[in-house]
Amino acid sequence: MPVAVLVVVLVTVPAPTAVSPFLHGPSVADVRMPSRPGTDGLLVRDAGEHDIAAMAAIYDDAVRTSVATFDLEARGAAYLTGKLAHVGSGNHLLVAELAGDVVGYALSAPFRERPAYRATKEVSVYLTARARGRGIGGRLYEELLGRLDADPAVHTQMAVIALPNDASEALHRRLGFERVGVLREVGHKLGRYVDTAWWQRLPVAHVQPAAERRGGGPR
Ligand SMILES: CC(C)(COP(=O)(O)OP(=O)(O)OC[C@H]1O[C@@H](n2cnc3c(N)ncnc32)[C@H](O)[C@@H]1OP(=O)(O)O)[C@@H](O)C(=O)NCCC(=O)NCCS
Q1: How many angstroms is it from 125 CA to the middle of ligand 1?
Q2: Does 157 have pLDDT greater than 60?
Q3: Can you give the residue range of the structural domain that contains 102?
Q4: Are residues 54 and 47 in contact, defined by beta-carbon separation less than 8 angstroms?
Q5: Among candidate residues 154, 51, 39, the one with its CA nearest the CA of residue 95
Q6: Which of 1, 88, 92, 121 is most buried by its number of CB atoms within 10 A?
Q7: What is the largest distance, in Å, between two alpha-carbon atoms of the chain?
Q8: What's the angle, vertex CA 108, arms to CA 103 and CA 112, rounded to 5?
Q9: Residues 6+ apart with CB under 8 A from 8
Q10: Nearest residue to 177 via CA among 195, 150, 156
Q11: Are the C-beta atoms of 120 and 111 separated by less than 8 Å?
């Protein structure tokens, strides 16, 4: 009888997957959305130099018209040329292309430069105004976060969202980010003070108990 029970347990254990060395909650595969109307033929791919002008136009429109970024002046091509130059392990720059046009991009980059932050990446995503609301931000992030999950050198991901931004907060929540705090009135743009929400996506298998984390906080 004990032998029979043991056999049942062994048979029902799921086979291990090779997707991620970590146990995110949820994984990107768990929350992948089906294609939405208006996105037929959408291509998510690595950005190249020929995409810089389109990405710069998208970013600079956000600079001029929104608080989504705290830049106050258009950055032009130089900003994204710099991001492209630093693409490598954990640092990605992806574009979404629809009918031959770049309609958005997403990137991951160092959260802070000090070396103890090296396994922490900050992610962001920007779309043209006409591409929003069709799930394209999600498609970019599914590819980006899938790459980060598969990279043993990346531990946790941060997103800093100026408020209000319901679409961005919903997007990050769906993809497994948790809202860990709000900094009040840290930005001043378009005539008002702006809060930022800090969102974090942590591999749950690696969360340290609070007692182990206590101590002075680095800056
Ligand atoms: C934020 C952004 C990237 C989202 O991408 P998107 O493709 O438009 O988003 P989606 O269509 O996938 O919608 C994302 C979620 O927000 C929800 N949403 C969209 N617009 C919303 C709104 N106005 N209010 C509330 N929820 C909204 C959607 O229902 C969806 O929820 P779900 O994933 O639970 O179904 C895009 O809107 C954008 O580029 N905005 C300007 C730049 C910006 O704010 N970037 C983020 C900087 S942190």
Answers
A1: 10
A2: yes
A3: 20-30+39-213
A4: no
A5: 51
A6: 121
A7: 75
A8: 140
A9: none
A10: 156
A11: yes
Domains: count for the chain: 1
Q: Is residue 53 part of a domain?
A: yes
The contacts of residue 138 (CB under 8 Å, 6+ apart) are 33, 171, 174, 175
pLDDT digits (tens, 9 = 90+) for 193-203: 999 999 999 97
d(CA 44, CA 136): 9
Going from the Cα of 204 to the center of ligand 1, the distance in angstroms, rounded, reads 25
In a domain, 14, yes or no: no
pTM value? 0.84
Helix, strand, coil fractions of the chain, as percent rounded to 5: 35, 25, 35
Is residue 3 assigned to a domain? no
Whether 123 lines ligand 1, by a CB cut-off of 6 Å, is no
- Domain assignment of residue 1, yes or no: no
Is the CB of 103 inside a 6 Å radius of any atom of ligand 1? Answer: no
CATH no. for residue 88?
Answer: 3.40.630.30
Asked whether 128 lines ligand 1 (CB < 6 A), one says no
pLDDT of residue 219: 55
The per-residue pLDDT for range 6-23, each reduced to its tens digit, is 444 444 433 433 344 444
Tell how strand 101-110 and strand 93-98 pair up. Answer: antiparallel
How many angstroms separate the CA atoms of 34 and 14, rounded?
Answer: 25
Expressed in angstroms and rounded, the spacing between residue 98 Cα and the centre of ligand 1 is 18
